[in-house]
Amino acid sequence: MLRVGGAAVAVAAGVTGFADRSLAAALVSADLVVYGATAGGLVAAIQARRMGRTAIVLEPSTHLGGLTTGGLGQTDTGNGAAIKGIAGEFYRRIHAKYAGTPVTPTSPARFTFEPHVARAVFDEMLASAGVPVYLGVRLASVTRSGNRLLEVVGDNGQTYRGAMFIDASYEGDLMARAGVSFTVGREANATYGETINGVQLRSGHQFNFPVSPYVVAGSPGSGLLPGISAAALAPAGSADDLIQAYNYRMCLTQAASRLPFPKPAGFDPVHYELAARYIQAGWTGPFFTTHGVGNGKTDSNNNGAFSTDFIGANYAYPTASYAARESIAADHRTYQQGFMWFLANDPRVPAAIRSATASWGLAADEFTATGGWPPQLYVREARRMVSAHVMTERNCRGQEPVPDPVGLASYTMDSHNCQRVVVGGVVKNEGDVQIGVPGPYGVSFRSIVPTEAQCANLLVPVCLAASHIAYGSIRMEPVFMILGQSAATAAVLAISAASPVQRVPYATLRSRLVADGQLVEWPPPAGPGEVIVDSKGAGVTRAGTWVTSTATPGYWGADYEHDGNTAKGVNRLRFRPTLPSSGTYTVYLRWTADPNRASNVPIDIVHGGGLTTRTVDQRVTGGQWVALGSYSFAAGADGSLLIRTENTNGYVIADAARWVLTP
């Protein structure tokens, strides 16, 4: 038994903190009711419990953890240094789980992981916080009083009552039931003064060879192949109700124990005719990604013009019934399993491609209840709230910083293709956009709450208010965790003040978020006795040629620099701090790691006692501050840290240096 809000609640045997809906009491009450056991929803409940309030999580499916435990083990981080708070703790716990070490506030973060490891970490965090999760709870109705939600009722009649509610689902069902405004599809560029929203015919994940879209190649009168729109391509930047494609993030392996790709019962070769023609036209791949996540397993995703994305098959999903969504998800599963089987077995596919594909299979020890196939459809976008502030491309680009940030996002503005169209007698994919942002940016508090008139006690950290293209940057699992924590913090503060959540003073909210380790500005302010020098900041001098980049996440500030792996010994970069007082300072250096980096970078530290040379390996320990020792420094700008490049065996990175005064 687990006590929630003063009432004893039965939980499923052997799984502390998790309840089958059939075992729940007729009425369950908690301070905070979270709908959606996504990563963001789980973090929200954990935060509420850590703030001394009761919280429960309702999940319509039987899967816990959303995409984070559902195959997305190659985390879309953007700048990993901007991921703090409970989200940062989760990724530090992932590292500790693999390393077999205790997690600490200074543990490194690990952003790649196997699905079962992510699930184990969430289970531990939920158990520690005392958060019950009720699986298989589908919304039947909600009860309101004025502009407040009172309770939600499951489809089996069980009632869940709370003072505050959070909709952390990918679909926004509770938000919609509560009468909150939302939109689905792509806005026109003109709506919010954007440049890359709406219809976008671009080069990403595009057909590189001409492929006929017709049933009989080259014959328009024969009709179009499945999945190709008969509508004329609309003008660039125009609005429509289309959404970016969904797929499943597969966990694959080449181990002998792998499960071969199954041929689904609904396999229809016509769905892969475009792929066959594309191959015949000369395309040899890749057809899917194989990003390693540990122990020989992958997070495998869509890649290329014809891949695992089931383009055009998800338009009804955002507002569909639970049953209709199950059918759409089943169609996606059939399509994607059929595609993998096609690549591995169809005689129209060259033997080399068949062999390469068949060398992979489903990991037998992941998703064992579903035969190795992930249970969570990748719902990249569904409903999006319309509220007092809608996040836009201008916010993402840093052109219009928000005054009330409750977390940071930093990933590329990323939309997968939305449709297949006919252009000039050949098939084209439309909708793919991949445009980087200059650095981490704030997400507005107003974008995760409805207007007070619509609902005064609901927060929406996943289906938040954002334009289609801005959502493409924000919609990453770490950001959902960040916003989940911030939403729960606001909810608890509103409960304590007996006020609508929209009236929580931003200064009060910000203060609590910062106290709990959340980042709300970038770069983060230096702490007491701390001086940080960024590669683009004052106090940096350089010799030779240094190239600016944002290709590898984990950098400090807006970017980092590298030596281009050339001009060894000529390229040098010096960080010179202005220290506020004399004393002993620990010196840190930061870089982004990659196998192409140098493992033997010489670092000269000039301090009060002279010069000390250290060597760092930039192939590892990226995206964190690496201590290089403690030294005596005088106040002022006499000390420095010099990155040299002579005789280095790869790219040399210059990102930022840090001095921290010893108390």
From TrEMBL:
Database matches in InterPro entries: CBD-like_Golvesin-Xly, FAD/NAD-bd_sf, HdrA-like
Keyword line: 4Fe-4S, Iron, Iron-sulfur, Metal-binding, Oxidoreductase
Domain of life per record: Bacteria
Lineage: Bacteria, Bacillati, Actinomycetota, Actinomycetes, Micromonosporales
Name of the molecule in the record: FAD dependent oxidoreductase
tRNA-binding among keywords: no
SUPFAM superfamilies: FAD/NAD(P)-binding domain (SSF51905)
Stretches assigned to the Golvesin/Xly CBD-like domain: 531-658
GO molecular function: 4 iron, 4 sulfur cluster binding; metal ion binding; oxidoreductase activity
